[in-house]
Amino acid sequence: MFVCLLSLCSLTLLAQTGQSPRVMHTKEGSAIHVPPQEPPAGLKTIYSNLGKSKTDLYLDTWGYLLSGPNSGVGVAYFDAIPFTPKSDSHVSEVEVAVQYLGAGANQVNLSIYSNSGGVPGTLLAGPVTVTNLPDAGTCCTLAVASFTPLAVTAATQYWVVGDTPLTGTGSDFEGWWAFVVQGTTPPVGTYYEESWSTTPGLEEAAGEVLGTIP
């Protein structure tokens, strides 16, 4: 397996301070890119920052650290991406580029939160536990979570959050959330030392939000 414990493998953790997201880099694990899973028929895109090509959706060699508090990293780093529906909608599914680094339980929780002062606020849907994540450095299989349709309001910001339990199974997860490079500087949500913060950046964790748009 090309991935291993962070302290032993070739993955590079770029030094940052405070609550800034931990950017990671690795060599590509496979030159063969596969298309993502097909979403259920009838779902429309409410939000997406994924690439237009189904075999080039995100940067598979760069991502934000996502780790549980009982992982080898020793601290919880959770990530979130903001989305703002253009019209009133119902969210049924999120598809994100969360990948496994080969240590801890191979699972992550995905949820939808309200916005509170520019960071994730109240839990609205989830968590949904997604297992058997793809290996870091591959493309373009996505982590998929399905929800009971959640009503969201136009021009209102929400967050898709990737995290782990604080204890028990999954709290030792070590992975990353592969990102895309944006032409703007959207807020990047990071949970560190029991609180959320945001920093602007050209890189945004990759994913999309699907559902029905009346």
In the CATH hierarchy, what is the class?
Mainly Beta
Distance between the termini: 45 Å
CATH T-level topology: Jelly Rolls
The class by helix and strand makeup works out as mainly beta
Topology order in helix (H) and strand (E) letters: EEEEEEEEEEEEEEEE
Q: What oligomerization state is this entry in?
A: single chain
| Unreliable stretches covering 5 or more consecutive residues | 1-18
CATH architecture: Sandwich
Detailed description of the structure:
- 0% of the residues lie in helices and 49% in strands.
- With 214 residues, the protein is mainly β.
- Strands 1, 2, 4, 7, 12 and 15 form a 6-stranded antiparallel beta sheet that branches.
- Strand 8 (107-116) and strand 9 (119-131) form a beta hairpin.
Quick description:
The protein is an all-beta fold and 214 residues long.
Q: Which properties best describe this structure?
A:
214 residues, mainly beta, Jelly Rolls, six-stranded antiparallel sheet, 0% helix, disordered N terminus
